[in-house]
Design a protein that fits this description.
Layout (H helix, E strand, L loop, with lengths): L2 H82 L3 H23 L3 H20 L2 E3 L14 E6 L10 E6 L2 E3 L2 E4 L2 E5 L1
Parallel strand pairs: 2-6
Antiparallel strand pairs: 1-4, 3-6, 4-5
Helix pairs in contact: 2-3
Amino acid sequence: MSKEQEKQNSENHKEQLDQEMNDVIEKDVEGNQAEADKETNQEINELDKLKNDLQEEKDKFLRLFAEFENYKRRTSKERIELFKTAGEEIMQVMLPVLDDFDRALKEIQKSEDENMLKGVELISNKLRRTLESKGLAPIAVKAGDKFDADIHEAVTQIPAPDKKLKGKVIDVVETGYTLGDKIIRYPKVVTGK
């Protein structure tokens, strides 16, 4: 072999070694890059998972907070309603006493005893004012008012003495009462047909 061939072989061999070395370095760099990418992806996945967990916890907190606010609002409303109608049972028991006072006043007015009338009126008015201060109010109904099934309780129907009174209240048999906004006794009325 000549020196040129040896030199050529040596250069080829050197190029081949350089190529192999470059391939090894490239593979090593690619491996390191792949490993770095893998670690970065894991960190990104962990970060995304933590963000998702945080968002879920925020959602849970907001829902719990909203439920608590609704609970507070509902119990507050129930408490106010309870205070408004706390004495409903007592008021309903007192209604017949008010009816008895009305009947007694009508009968006493027929007699001519002024002192008895004044005494019974004083007691009746005092009882009514006391009950009204606690929220009891009579439902205003008079003859000639239009009959409303949501407010009135029809006891009976009679032929109307006048055509204008058809479907209207002719007589009030028993006064109705409200406690706050709630009707605790419907007025009993006679209607015209």
